[in-house]
Design goal:
There is one protein chain. It is built from three helices and 13 strands. By secondary structure, the protein is α+β, with helices and mostly antiparallel strands. Strands 1, 4, 5, 6, 7, 8, 9, 10 and 11 form a nine-stranded mixed sheet that branches.
């Protein structure tokens, strides 16, 4: 006869003694990898359970993937602290939690005054089976038309408000840091056209005035 499965109960919170931190559903945590040479895994706690006596505590988690762990791998626009919320769910021992962390929205992350070791950001959800991302499109910037990487220095055009990588506009990072006012090539060419049109209009206006004067 099959042995009855031991009843488990859901916990509102649990204190991980090894780190003296209390976790609850919705928290983001760092999970200890089996290979100590690897970075800790990032996960979101969905549920905490224990056996009927309060022992053998396990956490139901949803994994975040780092770009290098995804099918497409890390790309130029991926930030060093970027993670993707995956559809990969798992159950792990609570004892494998080695710290708490914060996964910010992309917008919130870019407004941080300082980024700590426990700060990450997420702007994509990731399908671990197909390698697809949601959303599948994001805003692109610069002449290279790449999504924004918050680790990269960029300069903003005062004309069109677009952002540019210094290397894409022939600047060194040091030069870009010293720039007080910047206009991209398109805005400069537009300003030249406007200036030329203004001069042409001014010349035509002067000619008309002179003609009228001669008629007098």
């Amino acid at each position: 006869m099959a042995k009855a499965r031991a009843a488990r109960r859901t916990l509102d919170s649990y204190t991980v003694k090894a780190i003296n931190k209390t976790i609850q559903a919705g928290d983001c945590v760092l999970m200890r990898p089996s290979d100590s040479s690897k970075l800790p895994y990032v996960a979101r706690v969905e549920k905490i359970e224990s056996d009927s006596r309060g022992g053998n505590v396990r956490v139901h988690i949803r994994w975040y993937y780092r770009p290098e762990e995804s099918i497409g791998g890390r790309r130029q626009f991926h930030g060093s602290k970027e993670v993707f919320l995956s559809d990969h769910h798992d159950v792990q021992s609570a004892d494998t939690i080695e710290g708490k962390c914060t996964v910010h929205s992309f917008k919130s992350y870019t407004k941080l005054d300082a980024v700590g070791n426990e700060d990450f950001f997420c702007r994509f959800e990731y399908n671990s089976s197909t390698g697809a991302f949601t959303p599948d499109r994001v805003a692109v910037y610069c002449k290279c038309e790449m999504p924004y990487n918050p680790d990269d220095l960029m300069v903003q055009c005062e004309g069109c408000s677009d952002w540019f990588h210094p290397t894409c506009i022939g600047m060194t990072p040091e030069e870009a840091k010293r720039v007080d006012h910047f206009f991209c090539e398109n805005c400069l060419s537009e300003d030249k056209k406007k200036l030329q049109n203004s001069h042409a209009t001014s010349r035509n206006s002067d000619t008309k005035v002179d003609t009228k004067r001669r008629r007098r």
